[in-house]
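input
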Amino acid sequence: MPDIRYVCLSDTHFGADNSLLTYLGHGRLSADPMRQSPVLEQLVLGLRDLVAKNERGEKPSLVLNGDILELALTTDNRAAMAFERFLELAFPKGGEALFRNRIYYLPGNHDHHLWETAREAQYLEYIASEKTSRPIDPPWHATNLFLENRPKPCPANFLDTLARRHGLADVSFITAYPNLGLVSGDDRRAVIFTHGHFAESIYTLVTRLMTMLFPDRLQPTQVWEVEAENFAWIDFFWSALGRSGQAGENIEIIYDKLQDKAAFSRLLQNLARVLAQHPKVPGWGERMKVWLLYRVLGATMGRLANAEVQRKDVQLSEDAEAALKRYLEGPLRAQVLSERPSVPAEVTVVFGHTHKPFERVTHYQGFAEDVKLLNSGGWVVDSVDAKAPVGWAVVLLDEDLNAASLRFPSRIAAGANPICVAKAEGSAALPNPFHERLVGLVDAAKPPWSNFLEALRSSVADHLENLKLKISSPT
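output
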């Protein structure tokens, strides 16, 4: 029988006020990273129950697929403390570890800065090892895709340090960016993890600006070229502002008010009025200055409102569909072929970022068969829209790299199971024995999953109350 060999979590946003995996509690305006979230506690208990049923008795490897720590909307220390609560539960002192001690970590856009620190530390180590008589290679902006092709793993020093604080001397985090690939023993099947921010055109803004200014230039075709052009933009806006004092706190206010058009409009009007008073803003009359600044702010900050995570009307917007297609058919496929003689026949791509979980099969050029897509959702409450296609999910793989998604949708149809074990459906969706086994193991009506659902419903209600208060608060 197939066992759980890999567990993939993404978009936990540890430390964020809107994260279900960071303790908030009823009536609180800010999260308490020193306490364990009830949802996190019950999720770990549920996973322990599933892993305990592995017939071979082996523990699974954990894959953290981006936006694990929130570094854009909170500070390093709060994100670190919230992540420590996860370590306490997954690797309890004096208790049995839930996962293997080697954890794979793919930074996303909200914790991108941890990729910068990891690659810079590895680069300094490389420089120190080179002889002074040899030229120094330029910095690199990606790791090898497939694990077997990595001459030396790239550590995650920040997360390793947190593990050491808790006495976990044998637990290590291996950084992979922006993609991590696994291949079956017969080379026919591959699973590729990627956070998913490159499936949104705003994260390649610098590339698009350079193309506008220099239309005849060569376009980036490799993942490291895409990252090299856009890393500073990604790092600045999505992974550093939380550490920018009062400015970081103000960015969080803007992010919350994006959920409501009227509140966001009032925020822009207030900002326009404040900026209009600045002595260096040319004088065209008070009303004209406010109107012009409001339009400019709407055109720039308004792009945040159109970001994929804010699009609650669709699973993937047209922009995201097109960007995902470009990324898979271009840089991702090129990276596969840079390390292997051909693209494996069956490819599954696991990504998060959008906070809208789904499973499907889609055709992409350059792949022998349709690609299975599994989106792992996000563990945050960032919308007051009851109709939004959001939800929370954990992606699981067996030893043959069959994939299934343990999904907890926010909207439950009458009579439907509030916990569904889903697999990608479509023309290439073959029988999946792993999926069928999981269906038999997960019962939402019995502990531990019934306890998990109770904690989830209570915590979602608290977070919705918190979000509505922040949206309605004066700026």
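quick obs: The radius of gyration is 23 Å.
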